Amino acid sequence: MKEKVLIVEDERQIARFLQLEFEHEGYEVKIAYDGVSGLKEALEGDYDIVLLDVMLPVIDGYEVLEKIREKSDIPVIMLTAKDQVKDKVKGLDIGADDYVTKPFSIEELFARVRAALRKKNLPSKRGVLKFADVVIDFNTYEVRRQGIKIDLTKKEFDLLEFLMRNAGIALSRERILQAVWGYEYYGDTNVVDVYIRFLRSKIDDPFDKKLIHTIRGVGYILRVDGNED
User: CA 20 to 30 Å from 198, out of 56, 142, 207, 222?
Assistant: First the structure.
């Protein structure tokens, strides 16, 4: 059965280009040209993934994504000309699965769509994951340290899980990007540093023992002992 793609894009030339390219690859495609109709389609249609522009008429892509996430965990890839790290972080924090800046290569977009669909089709995780005094409970998607509940965004949660599953291993920024964001990243790796800073402010800063350590020139490592750089 064909996988269904919803494209929410007000620039008709771009929307038509994407439609033709995705149909050529075997996807079934529907287009919405504004935020209201895009939101309605995303919530009422049976789609496998949404490609969502940020700058949309009526309501913008960020608001559309927020409303989608209130009711659905469908994969959403944001498409936008905004390439600042703060804009990417905003989209990812709201719940985007990926963030692609214009102009982009269609091959890269296909790769990111395939990655998002693979993650969607992974079996649900159950049980708990522990490291030191940090516990991730996949049954409730709660994180606790020393018994204290810590509220994390989706990407912070995914980043912490990856660090915990690879505790004691030096992880490059590129490897973290590929694992947590689900694709081979093209461009600035600053988003990793931003999210590590966010995660440290919740996991490390309120506690005496620091767990997330910097390895200069390489990336990061999760460990109980060692010097904080």
Answer: 56
H runs (alpha helix) in 82-220? 85-94, 106-120, 154-165, 173-176, 190-203
Beta strands at 148-150 and 142-145: parallel, antiparallel or unpaired: antiparallel
pTM of the model: 0.66
CATH of domain 4-120: 3.40.50.2300
Q: Where does the chain hold its CATH 1.10.10.10 domain(s)?
A: 128-222
Is the domain spanning 128-222 CATH 1.10.10.10? The answer is yes
Please, which pLDDT band fits residue 163 given cuts at 50, 70 and 90?
Answer: very high
